[in-house]
Amino acid sequence: ATPIALLVGTGRGAQMGVLIKGPEVLETSRGIDTIVLDKTGTVTTGTMTLTGTVRADGVSEDELLTIAGALEDASEHPIAKAIATAARTRLGTLPAVESFQNVEGLGVTGVVDGHAAVIGRASLLQDWAVQLPADLQHAKDSAEADGNTVVLVAWDGQARGLLLVGDEVKPTSADAIRRLRALGLRPVLLTGDNATVARRVAASVGIDEVIAEVLPAEKVDVVARLQAEGRKVAMVGDGVNDAAALAQADLGLAMGTGTDAAIEAADITLVRADLLGAVDAIRLSRRTLTVIK
Ligand code: ADP
Ligand code: MG
């Protein structure tokens, strides 16, 4: 039979906005020593905005935003939404897309106004044999050093410019990470974003262990690797790309604002959608386990 304390703990969680899938979840959280945190939408707000553009010679900003905006309009990614919104605000309407492909964790490709376009990470452009000229490479490096996520735009085989996007660290993240440390947990930042941006965010919230440039399908492997090292792992995430890792973790926590896939895969949903909810969840399970031990 289920110990009454677990049921009471589950009920208390609900009052705090910590929705626990079943009483046994509190027991599985015994001995958690590591907490893996997704960056975008978990440590940061996930509400991306376009903060700037850089254009190759002969490319206008309207042209850059037309092609990138039209293509990203077909994607659900927070970066895509930021680009499409900025483009529509500036240009009114966007042209129809003739073909479209989402490349998970890398970007998008497709045809707009007769141009075959590739938009996303450097490795995606490399896959399409697009070279990044030295001036754009420089601009990319310095924008990343400033904490921007840089989206590369190419069409008809040539790099045409950069789109700089960013979001903000949630106001409660640093405090929550301090509290998680005080509970004896080692925080690890896990992200598909580039290492410079990831390290910057990590430093601003007090995390020193950073695993960046991880493809969506690889997040689960990172969690499994930490477990193989003998660590007992909680994971907090929000994205479709976090779902498998949330299921793999000893304790999976999804942001209430997250995708259905993340919420379904997780053991706990944090209604308040910030990391203080994770602190409450860990504290609650420890308190409950002390009572029943
Ligand atoms: P996170 O792990 O931080 O939630 P993702 O795995 O969703 O990030 O994305 C990783 C990276 O892939 C992004 O930082 C971005 O560089 C690139 N990317 C993914 N989707 C898109 C898109 N639709 N347009 C442009 N870039 C994208
Ligand atoms: Mg995310």
TrEMBL record:
Signal peptide: none annotated. It is found in: Cell membrane. Belongs to the cation transport ATPase (P-type) (TC 3.A.3) family. Type IB subfamily. This is Heavy metal translocating P-type ATPase. It comes from Agrococcus versicolor. The lineage of its organism: Bacteria, Bacillati, Actinomycetota, Actinomycetes, Micrococcales. The chain holds residues 405 to 697 of 762 of the full protein.
